[in-house]
């Protein structure tokens, strides 16, 4: 019995399903990790892997970045958390506001899910409306109103769809305030949201939604959403919890289409728990407890803006100048090119999507351009087989084929990724059908 298997058996006795994150669930058991260094992690059985999971895209510097580790140690010596604010949160807020032109003020949270949640609450307070629109197949965390139609079959027709909760814990009452729209489809979206325009508080959209397939939002669709919200006094909310790693100022977007609010997280915490909402000063004012003349959103949290996360985040973001984003994005383009070549070389149909330092591979389809394509491909068992075979060869990807680069990686690591994928595909092809 492996030590990972033994750990899983222990976990089953004290945790439902043996885990605390559903995303970690695997059969017959997950791989338990014990340490990381640079671009590599080591499991409890001593096996060392090249890690393209990076805690689900969070660890843009991989493991053990000296500046981040030093910042955590220094802050730990001063204090782990306080009841009062610290200068560290001001410093990280200042850095983020300086980098992103449409960030005027920031509110920190503990997770990306919480960031989306309070952005939605801010939109409701600011507009006085309740209805929230989100895209079919998009994931926006664990807040009931947007925890709908994440893995359900894609929309059909142009009638207003009935939202479907992602699991039985989603309140049916919350779903009545959710409107599902098709990503990158202007005409079908228009027909769905026009009849509800007077009740719409906000549209939440991810510029590069991972669950939809790491397909970028089209410029025309974004322009349509921006114009619609402006015309109908609704807000446009970006969810860049994952896609903020695409560039120095997050996902690139033209000035006329800047969102009103943006939820971010993951890379801004240096590997520690964090999230944030940023946006226009007049909207962010709903969080100001000193303003009694308008609606106020009460938002607190024992560990919100905790100094460890602030210090780690400041160090991590400071170590990401424009040049480092550019270098990482060049490596990302190289990875996607070599992945495509691997499919062609082996003669198995497949494709790769993504931008910047992100990629997602698919086995089966030659093109993935919509959530319908992604949904169909997700049910091909060959993908999980390829991911498992790559893990056997000491390369880690997420179970859906999602990968994220980290700054310690070089062209050698990207070449090894492609080589390992090609070996996994050849092994798959040699099996009897």
Automatic annotation (TrEMBL):
Pfam families: Aminotran_3
Presence of keyword Metal-binding: no
Xref: CDD domains: OAT_like
Domain of life of the native organism: Bacteria
Cofactor(s) it depends on: pyridoxal 5'-phosphate
InterPro entries for the chain: Aminotrans_3, PyrdxlP-dep_Trfase, PyrdxlP-dep_Trfase_major, PyrdxlP-dep_Trfase_small
UniProt family annotation: Belongs to the class-III pyridoxal-phosphate-dependent aminotransferase family.
Protein name: Aminotransferase class III-fold pyridoxal phosphate-dependent enzyme
